[in-house]
TrEMBL record:
Catalytic activity: aldehydo-D-ribose 5-phosphate = D-ribulose 5-phosphate
This protein's encoding gene: EOG090X0ACL
Key word Isomerase present: yes
E.C. numbers: 5.3.1.6
A Pfam family this chain is assigned to: Rib_5-P_isom_A
GO molecular function: ribose-5-phosphate isomerase activity
Alphabetical UniProt keywords: Isomerase
GO cellular component: cytoplasm
PANTHER family xrefs: RIBOSE-5-PHOSPHATE ISOMERASE (PTHR11934:SF0)
Family statement: Belongs to the ribose 5-phosphate isomerase family.
Protein name in the entry: ribose-5-phosphate isomerase
UniProt signal peptide: none
InterPro entries, per database record: NagB/RpiA_transferase-like, Ribose5P_isomerase_type_A
Species annotation: Daphnia lumholtzi
């Protein structure tokens, strides 16, 4: 593989699947790095006879599971997961994550919360000391469509910064719509924050009604694999 970024994603994904997947129910995250994780998982199922049920976090993840002939499950039938493997838009040194660049943050956070172990896979561009060093698009916040303007103003008043409604771009007129039928605000912040406090504030319905979930994952991941440009894999633990 000639592309160093894609190779880094593949290395991180393969190592995580090799080190953490055993027989059981597996949560499958979303994004470009997860594509390689599902590829490796399918190889292991074929070669080693692993018995796994895969629970997807998004339409994309569901299609990957189906395309690789893996057993598809859901949280209604499988609410307890052995491990969830997912990517991240950025990770700080304590494995506090920004997720939701692809719009799947709510389901991703649900799967992470249901797993005995939440493992992050990413390339070297996503590894930071502090959030905001690499990822400059803000923290995604999924909101009820009718409340997006209210949430926009309340976040700006309570937390400062600047929020923007995520638009679909040239392929579709209007805002991005999540798999849950909601909108996404991207909150651009300044400086280092107490991220647990920010996460709690964003989800407090008394203060900011209309928020479904936010893309801060605080204290959830315990292990991360970052594929590096030199062909190695950097591991972080907390």
């Amino acid at each position: 593989m000639n592309d160093p970024v894609e190779n880094a994603k593949r290395l991180a994904a393969f190592k995580a699947v090799d080190n953490h997947v055993v027989d059981g129910v597996i949560g499958i995250g979303s994004g470009s790095t997860v594509v390689y994780a599902v590829e490796r998982l399918a190889q292991r199922v074929k070669d080693e006879g692993l018995e796994v049920i895969c629970v997807p976090s998004s339409f994309q993840a569901k299609q990957l599971i189906i395309q690789h002939d893996l057993k598809l499950g859901d949280l209604e039938m499988n609410p307890y997961l052995k491990v969830t493997i997912d990517g991240a838009d950025e990770s700080d040194h304590m494995l506090t994550l920004i997720k939701g660049g692809g719009g799947c943050l709510t389901q991703e956070k649900i799967l992470a919360s249901c797993a005995e172990e939440f493992v992050v896979i990413a390339d070297y561009r996503k590894a930071s000391t502090h959030l905001g060093e690499q990822w400059t698009k803000g923290i995604p916040i999924e909101v009820i469509p009718s409340a997006y303007r209210v949430v926009y103003h309340k976040i700006d008043k309570i937390l400062g910064g600047k929020s923007e409604l995520r638009m679909s771009g040239s392929s579709k007129a209007g805002p991005v719509v999540t798999d849950n039928g909601n909108f996404i605000l991207d909150w651009n912040f300044e400086g280092v924050k107490d991220w647990k406090e920010v996460e709690t504030t964003l989800n407090m319905q008394v203060k900011i009604p209309g928020v479904v979930e936010n893309g801060l994952f605080v204290g959830m991941a315990r292990k991360a694999y970052f594929g590096m440009s030199d062909g190695t894999v950097m591991e972080r633990n907390v």
